[in-house]
What we know:
Layout: H1 26-36, E1 44-48, H2 54-61, E2 66-70, H3 74-86, E3 93-96, H4 100-109, E4 114-119, H5 126-138, E5 142-153, E6 161-162, E7 165-173, E8 176-182
Parallel strand pairs: 1-2, 1-4, 2-3, 4-5
Antiparallel strand pairs: 5-8, 6-7, 7-8
Helix pairs in contact: 4-5
Amino acid sequence: MRVISGQFKGRRLNATPPSGIRPTSDKLKETIFNILATRVDGATFLDGCAGLGGIGIEALSRGAAQVVFAEQSRKACGIIRENLQSLDITEGYKILEMDLAKALGLCAREGLRFDIAFIDPPWDRDDIYESAFKKLSEAGLLAPDGLLIMEHSKRKEMPESWGDLRRTRSLVQGDSALAFYSLGLEA
Length: 187
């Protein structure tokens, strides 16, 4: 696993995932950030079900102002901390070592609004997808022109809409798929 572009371009990250963690491939990560392009610079970014933190670290490398890593695995959070330390990143992030629903609840209580929310739960955990849709739709966690990206199995059908969220784009790459949602603007 490596940083694709930005300040830390080419730097390698610790990529030995604990059991049950499936990191987003470098190829898919590159696709995501090519689509996001300049939206990342200055953004408040959520890396939900962060795993090893590769997506959030890529966002920091590309100029995100604040990244929230939400991950319930203590071991994975330790790897995120090691990767941030190896890149000498000391600010602009928060690691929430808890399940995604609790992390989103905490973010809502703190008044956080995400410009970009990337969520990649274990693909068989429909409850996490549903909880994330519900919290992001109802708790005002997305900025008015914010974007939600859900990574999922290409065999899983994602809803066209959920509350105020509308799917604006879908993309399949290998076994993975991405569903993009917004409150108004398209990806």
